[in-house]
Amino acid sequence: VQLQASGGGLVQAGGSLRLSCAASGGTFSRYAMGWFRQAPGREREFVAAISWSGASTYYADSVKGRFTISRDDAKNTVYLQMNSLNSEDTAVYYCAADPWGSSQRTLAKSYDYWGQGTQVTVSS
């Protein structure tokens, strides 16, 4: 399974971005998907996840109410809509795929496949 993340960039505080992650080489519709991020000098942290069916979504407290994860199985793509961005959101964002639907969806070790990351920089 290959994952290609895109959509990052430079945005002013209060602005919005939408990240995309296109999957190929696997059965995307059967995978739970997640977004993680890593800021310089910090550990990779969970941002959001969505179940294979799309019926359930999960968010880190720090992004709840501002970020929305969604998926389009027809396009083999998962999205992360990010609104009301602030400087604390500056990081490299990674998408990841979990073929097994682990209940430990906030842990990076639950995901078998990772994209290459896309940089998000929020200027204040």
Task: Please specify the SSE layout and strand pairing.
Elements: E1 2-6, E2 9-12, E3 17-24, E4 32-38, E5 45-50, E6 57-59, E7 67-72, E8 77-82, E9 91-98, E10 113-114, E11 118-123
Parallel strand pairs: 2-11
Antiparallel strand pairs: 1-3, 3-8, 4-5, 4-9, 5-6, 7-8, 9-10, 9-11
What does it look like?
- It is a single chain.
- This protein has 124 residues and is mainly beta.
- It contains no helices and eleven strands.
- Strands 2, 4, 5, 6, 9, 10 and 11 form a seven-stranded mixed beta sheet that branches. Strands 1-3-8-7 form a four-stranded antiparallel beta sheet, with no helix packed on it.
- Strand 4 and strand 5 (45-50) form a beta hairpin.
- The mean pLDDT is 97.
List unreliable stretches of 5+ residues: none
Strand segment tally: 11
The main pleated sheet reads as: 7 strands, mixed
Distance separating the two termini:
37 Å
* Tally of helical segments: 0
Order of helices and strands: EEEEEEEEEEE
Shape: globular
Kindly state the mean pLDDT as a whole number?
A: 97
Instruction: Provide the helix percentage.
Output: under 10%
Query: Strand portion, in percent?
Result: over 45%
Oligomer: single chain
Structural class: mainly beta
Cα-atom radius of gyration: 13 Å
